[in-house]
Amino acid sequence: MDKIYAKIQNLSMHRPTEFSRQCRSRDTKSTMPIPPQPAAQEPDLASFSDDVHAMITRLLTDDKRFRVIPIMGMEGIGKTTLAKLIFNHKAVVDHFPFAVWTSDGCRLHLRVNGTSRYIKWSRMILTTCDMRLPSKLERKSDPHPLRLRTDEESWALFTHALKVSIPPELLKLKEEIVKRCGGLPLLIVKFAEALSHKDATIEEWSTALQQCHHDQQQLWSNTLCNIHKDLSLYMRRCLFHFTLFPQDFDIPARRLIRLWVAEDLVQPEGENEAPEDVAERCLNLFIAQGMIQVTKKKFNGKVKAIRLPDTLRQYWLSKAQQATFLGRRYKFRSYSCDYNTTTSLTPFYEDVLSFLSFDTRKESKPGEEVGNFLHRCVSRGCFLVLLVLDLENVFRPKLPEAVGELTQLRYLGLRSTFLEIIPSSLSKLQNVQTLDMKHTSISTLPNSIWKLQKLRHLYLSESYRSKLMLRHGTNSLTTLQTLCGLFIDEETLVRDCLDRLLDIKKLGLTMSSKQEAVSLSLQAVADWISKLNQLHSLRLKSIDKSNQPWDLELKPLVGHVNLSCIYLLGRLRNPSIISQFPYSLIDLTLSGSGLAEDPMQSLDKLPNLRSLKLFAKSYLGKNMLCSLGGFPQLRALKLWKLEQLEEWNVDKGALQDLRDLEIRFCRSLKMLPVELLHRTLLKIEVIPAQ
């Protein structure tokens, strides 16, 4: 790397000279031979579209200084593929009159009109497996670490590289293929090439999958030791934590981050830094270094779910065992146990700090078994230092009243359990930070929940109208950052109560009040939201007693510079509010808004918007226009049940980044915009009205 830097210095030291116009070409010949680009088949842009967009944005910046953009990552992760996509991209070809591809860091100069002259290069892309840059180069660089591909990207790359159509009987191997390749492009392409003949049988596919696993081990063996050596202690512990989840398990990033915080695996580095931010930064670092695979991403760019590829899981599991992370005192982290054991519980569960269950049988038995097991453990003096009780996806676990004895508990995960009641002893859990009851059947919460002074994340069941009855003038729950699924009616105290919760970053509310009280309730909520300066995500629904969209009030949100996601269901009392959304907005959903004027004329000016969904009755007009230059980053557009929409026009140069278009039940829409019909990277799905 130091040698490359020295050669880069040589390139940037020489002053630019005048060149005749006919020489301003990417085909200008060098005085030394330039190795050709790789002769492999054309790369698949769809599998690297996010990376291409990010790289081109950096390349085409107005910054005139010399910049190096290293594409970083392990062997086989797609560095050369991405570099080739960038080099041949039309925007790059049009912007840079001179461009050279070389396989080493040699000094480049061009022969123009028979004279050897140096060019002062403005941008340089280099690929490297080394995640550490020399300090001198680091000051001039803007690194782009390559991550492992998601399942969707992996399958797109596989089908692109496969030279034959996939027989229907082999499609059932799709899930296994993307998992076994672990998101590594080199393995995906190699696997596809091995099967690129018409007569491949399911036995050959299975054999190739086994070979793929072997190849993955070989590729990773070259980098894992160095990665492990360079990691800090707390980062190793976070990596070891992945091994608690079953093989090939898709782990929600939300769940993982909350667990790391609850178990003290991460610590804030400054007074104003939240542990959740440290955990998210750690997770992103693992992704950047290719140590874990993103399986699902949100439109706001954040990670939704991750997986530890099997080869990596085996490696980190062995390291965790060597480091006693899963040793005698720490066997609590094992995710399997015998609920009905007759042996003494004390030696095994006395010092347990975390209990996670992955029993997802959809019957009453697992819920009864885990409930009895918890009761026996607590009654015999076990679990008394428990920090985490995570029963996500366990069907209706029967929580005993004794759960209130777990006074050290910080994380109680009941998501997707369809639990109907929770013990009244919940108020004793004074150290709980995360209480997750999303997708349960709980409608009534203990009034004493307001006593949980350390609660940071509260997820309630939106569909069961969970209400939180706080006391007037209360100063409780002031550390709350997440409040999702809360139901508000005329009995809910908002002013001088809920509106004292000012640290909220993620808010989800459903409002339904009697007609005579609706205005006061809407106004109080609007005033509260306007004060939430740290808000990142807002989900707001206003419905009448028949669950139909009702009036919705909102104040300008331009000053909410961190707000990236908005979901609004209800008739907007002030329709012009859509022109006062913050530029930080990435994901927007409107439903039942009742807009009479074309919303595209306001929304197309949001520079970072990537996902837009206009659902039933959000727009009541007949015509819609996407103007030139509008929606520069929009990737996904959904138009559902816009029954009055007859004509939709798209100017040339609008929606340039659109990749997914979904139109459902727009019964009056006559035809699709011609401008969109010939875009090769655009996936269009149209479901006509019945």
TrEMBL record:
Residues 244-312 form the Disease resistance protein winged helix domain. Keywords: Plant defense, Repeat. One of its GO terms (molecular function) is ADP binding. The gene is RPP8L3_3. GO terms for biological process: defense response; response to other organism. Gene3D superfamilies: Helical domain of apoptotic protease-activating factors, P-loop containing nucleotide triphosphate hydrolases, Ribonuclease Inhibitor, Winged helix-like DNA-binding domain superfamily/Winged helix DNA-binding domain. The keyword Repeat applies. This is Disease resistance RPP8-like protein 3. Residues 379-665 form the Disease resistance R13L4/SHOC-2-like LRR domain. Residues 50-104 form the NB-ARC domain. It comes from the Eukaryota. The keyword Repeat applies. Residues 16-42 are annotated as: Disordered. InterPro entries: Apaf_helical (IPR042197), Disease_R_plants (IPR044974), LRR_dom_sf (IPR032675), LRR_R13L4/SHOC2-like (IPR055414), NB-ARC (IPR002182), P-loop_NTPase (IPR027417), WH-like_DNA-bd_sf (IPR036388), WHD_DRP (IPR058922). Signal peptide: none annotated.
